[in-house]
Write a structure and sequence with these properties.
By secondary structure, this protein is of the alpha/beta class. It is built from eight helices and nine strands. The longest helix has 40 residues. The two termini are 40 Å apart.
């Protein structure tokens, strides 16, 4: 049993304990203040996302009734989402000061429409990337599509449903041909503590369908935080640093059809996985 005033350290690096008078030590107070600041960031995002869905979805419906095309209306809604993502990252980084973000070659994100393929280490990867992309069609997984709090905002912005199978490949290809940017997390879920999850082949099938540049983006977070299954209350006292590095485009011609397309998609997926894995390991060294 620890003696009075002795400090103990949990696996988040927080120090607990009390001094001789029984008052909390600065570590415990710092922890409470830190959690409050992080919590306020997520309250900001949650309330903002709900308001976006509540206001944008009726506007999308009204725009369609007035003859505005789906392409034009979703582009406008994604622009609004982009501004919201920017504000959220300002709150995280400059107002609450609970993170740092380093960008490498960020200007490449806005040079033109592309298929962006990115690993997925943390919960805030979408607003982080979206803060730099005035237009982006994110591919959204089942977990978020079924989230009632986020669902209306996702529908209003026209994000793609990853569970639609082959239909999502056709839709993503159509949007790329229309000069839009599509963002895919090929792991399908957040990355594990070490390494990457095996890549799914959707991004490769889309690229081979259109014949477009693939822009690989590597995200790294040090220390790791907001992983899948990790409570936000375990946010560290030390500011996590998000490093976002945009790589060189991978030129992808239109692929063959039939069985040859399947083989080509398998090979391209292996190239993408190896590229992001190497970049991730290089960034950690």
């Amino acid at each position: 049993m620890p003696t009075p005033g002795a400090a103990t350290e949990d696996h988040s690096g927080w120090k607990d304990g009390a001094d001789a008078t029984g008052c909390p030590r600065p570590g415990r107070l710092a922890r409470a203040l830190r959690i409050c600041r992080v919590g306020l960031c997520f309250v900001y995002f949650g309330v903002g996302a709900w308001l976006l869905g509540a206001t944008l979805l009726p506007l999308v419906t009204l725009a369609r009734l007035r003859g505005v095309s789906e392409d034009a209306s979703t582009r406008r809604m994604q622009r609004v989402a982009h501004l919201f993502y920017r504000s959220f990252m300002v709150v995280m980084e400059r107002v609450m000061r609970v993170c740092e973000v380093q960008w490498v070659n960020a200007e490449a994100l806005t040079r033109g429409p592309a298929l962006i393929v990115v690993n997925h280490p943390s919960l805030i990867d979408t607003p982080l990337l979206g803060s730099k992309l005035p237009q982006a069609d994110f591919l959204v997984g089942r977990e978020w599509m079924s989230n009632r709090w986020m669902q209306r905002a996702i529908v209003a912005t026209g994000y793609l449903n990853a569970t639609d199978g082959s239909a999502v490949v056709r839709t993503a290809a159509e949007r790329l041909r229309a000069g839009r940017t599509v963002v895919i997390y090929p792991e399908g879920s957040r990355s594990p503590l070490e390494g990457l999850r095996p890549f799914q082949r959707g991004a490769a099938h889309i690229a081979l369908e259109v014949g477009c540049d693939i822009l690989p983006v590597t995200l790294q977070v040090t220390p790791r935080v907001l992983m899948k299954g990790q409570a936000w209350t375990r946010y560290p006292l030390e500011n996590p640093v998000w490093r976002v590095e945009v790589g060189e485009p991978i030129r992808t011609p239109v692929g063959p059809a039939g069985k040859e397309r399947v083989l080509a998609a398998r090979r391209l997926t292996a190239v993408l996985e190896e590229t992001l894995r190497k970049e991730s390991e290089r960034g950690r060294s």
